[in-house]
Amino acid sequence: MAIATINPATGETIETFTALSEAEIATKLELAQQAFEQYRRVPMQQKSQWMNAAAKILERDKEKFGKLMTLEMGKTVKSAIAEVEKCALVCRYYAERAAEFLADVSVGTDASHSFVRYQPLGIILAVMPWNFPFWQVFRFAAPALMAGNVGLLKHASNVPQCALAIEEIFEEAGFPTGVFQTLLVGSQQVAAIIADPRVKAATLTGSEPAGASLAAAAGKQIKKTVLELGGSDPFIVMPSADIEAAASTAVTARMLCNGQSCIAAKRFIVTEAIAEQFEKLLVAKFAALKVGDPMLPDTDVGPLATPSMLEDIDHQVQECVKVGAKVLIGGQPPAERAGNFYLPTIVSQIPVDAAIAQEEFFGPVALLFRVADLDAAIQLANATPFGLGASIWTQDATERDRAIAEIEAGSVFVNGMVKSDPRLPFGGIKHSGYGRELSIQGIHEFVNVKTVWIK
């Protein structure tokens, strides 16, 4: 894929960029290594000041950065601005908590003194996706930089201006030159970067194939990786739930980032007793969504990021129909609009054993399933290769506790939609990846956990 800004709402190519040469990459790697040798010794208080300064820049220019995201990948501008605000939040969180999270931990042993110390690894490569072009980067960079590491960002090829803007934010905040650099490179250049001995670890948020490729390349070099990959999150609704609240939240949970989110609710699993009521509410709420220009404040659903994304989601819906599913609303691009738009869609009566039911739907398409009871709901929730997040709506304590214990996912939300929060660890199991971001677990992913024993 060419490195370019292409407006997904119009198809217009705004600007193209040339990938870095091998020599240019080598120069940036050397700069990163030199920066690390000095940066690792910077006092925590100084790093905190710089990180808080980054938060202020994000808040100061949130509208500018929000519009840039919308221009490059199509999310609604109101959600893009909220994303920038969330980035400021994670910067402040680690600026305030990193010293506590990385403090020596004394352990009683047969030594005069023994403790655990957390020390930075060095250069960390981050391969990041287009769907949350600021948030995905900052939730890596804030803990990694506060731990004393330096970062190299290989961003998605369709959000190059976002990638460059993030580097500029850290520079303006006062971080030394080379501590955070953007690499405008193609995916075929990643393996060589990982193979460089100065790069100590890598993290990737993206698709299963991308994650497998990165992990294989890093594995050959015996380097650690953290992967956050796809999801097909279940959204279970039980008879005791507040059905109106569940349906309203279901729309928000599915349409997050125009439906292009790993943690968006994708499979709506509803018990028969309330299935008709929930279905009618959901269809009505989908019908009320405004599809249009993502730069307008009243738009609910913008375009998909690329033409190929549009083709993929439409193909998946047609495959559902071929195996006997029923389209309740939507099911096609709007005829009167250019760009990568797809109508909000609900598909029901999908055979649970159909291959298409195992796929992740990355667009504004909800899959609706009816089940007899909680046993069937949990079984269907787990009948997927993914395990990122899950949501259950119930007022019954037994149902709640069973869902928490039995659903195979990195997170379970009760009576709320799945979301990331700097205070909580985030990540998945199964094909959704491994490792954790955010909270104390996130900052510990890329440190040397050093045991010290003194007699």
Question: How would you characterize the overall build of this protein?
Answer:
By secondary structure, this protein is α/β, with parallel strands linked by helices. It folds into 2 domains: 251 residues, Aldehyde Dehydrogenase, Chain A, domain 1 (3-Layer(aba) Sandwich), CATH 3.40.605; 181 residues, Aldehyde Dehydrogenase, Chain A, domain 2 (3-Layer(aba) Sandwich). The chain is built from 14 helices and 20 strands. The strands form 5 sheets. It has a 7-stranded mixed β-sheet, sandwiched between helices. One of its GO terms (molecular function) is aldehyde dehydrogenase [NAD(P)+] activity. It comes from Chroococcidiopsis thermalis (strain PCC 7203). Belongs to the aldehyde dehydrogenase family.
Question: DSSP strand (E) fraction?
Answer: 15-25%
Reported by name, the CATH topology of the largest domain is Aldehyde Dehydrogenase, Chain A, domain 1
Q: What's the CATH architecture name of the largest domain?
A: 3-Layer(aba) Sandwich
Assign an overall shape: globular
Overall domain count: 2
Overall average residue pLDDT: 98
Beginning-to-end CA distance, first to last residue: 58 Å
With strands numbered from the N-terminus, the spatial order across the biggest sheet is 12-13-14-11-10-16-17
Please tell me how large the radius of gyration is: 23 Å
User: Which structural class matches the secondary elements?
Assistant: alpha/beta
| Helical content band | 40-55%
Number of strands: 20
Q: What is the name of the CATH class of the largest domain?
A: Alpha Beta
What is the CATH superfamily label of the largest domain? Aldehyde Dehydrogenase, Chain A, domain 1
- The low-confidence parts are none
Q: Please, how many helices?
A: 14
Main sheet, how many strands, which sense, barrel?
7 strands, mixed
GO molecular function: aldehyde dehydrogenase [NAD(P)+] activity; succinate-semialdehyde dehydrogenase (NAD+) activity
Family: Belongs to the aldehyde dehydrogenase family.
Keywords: NADP, Oxidoreductase
Protein name: Aldehyde Dehydrogenase
